[in-house]
Amino acid sequence: MIAAQRFDIGSTAVYPAHGVADIIGVETKTVGGHDLSFYQLQVRGSGLKIIVPVNKANENGMRPLAGPDAIDRTFQILRDHDVPIDRQTWNRRYRNFMDKIRAGAIEGVAEVYRDLALLRSQKTLSHGEREMLRTARDLLVGELAVARETSESEVAEELDSMFKN
């Protein structure tokens, strides 16, 4: 079994479907007669505050920023345009993409972005697909900019250039 990742106040983490967040505190609450510890996260960009049970953080997909190996794998995925077009119905494709985003791995988010960007060059995306493409792009841009210590605009330009029609 993999040891649970511990996060310190002031460190940065990634929370699935929300992106890069700063750990601004740890609080203890009594729930059902038991004291439970919670990370207090503040999502960068939106300012959204989330509390995550410390003992469920890994299970919920909270993880450290992507390191160099994960970033390399992410760009390999984004450069691979020789993937079969997903012929599933839009709602099944949507559910599969949401599952990848909720899982929290940057590589899964990259697959969603790549697949929808490639699909967009073949057909008009539904409103839900366009929103998911934007979400996947925003999640990638946010994490890659922080992990690579560069601007979001540079990362966005780099991603967009990979899928020019």
TrEMBL record:
<feature type="domain" description="CarD-like/TRCF RNAP-interacting">
    <location>
        <begin position="6"/>
        <end position="117"/>
    </location>
</feature>
<dbReference type="InterPro" id="IPR048792">
    <property type="entry name" value="CarD_C"/>
</dbReference>
<dbReference type="InterPro" id="IPR052531">
    <property type="entry name" value="CarD-like_regulator"/>
</dbReference>
<dbReference type="Pfam" id="PF21095">
    <property type="entry name" value="CarD_C"/>
</dbReference>
<dbReference type="Pfam" id="PF02559">
    <property type="entry name" value="CarD_TRCF_RID"/>
</dbReference>
<dbReference type="InterPro" id="IPR003711">
    <property type="entry name" value="CarD-like/TRCF_RID"/>
</dbReference>
<dbReference type="InterPro" id="IPR036101">
    <property type="entry name" value="CarD-like/TRCF_RID_sf"/>
</dbReference>
<dbReference type="InterPro" id="IPR042215">
    <property type="entry name" value="CarD-like_C"/>
</dbReference>
<dbReference type="GO" id="GO:0009303">
    <property type="term" value="P:rRNA transcription"/>
</dbReference>
<protein>
    <submittedName>
        <fullName>Transcriptional regulator, CarD family protein</fullName>
    </submittedName>
</protein>
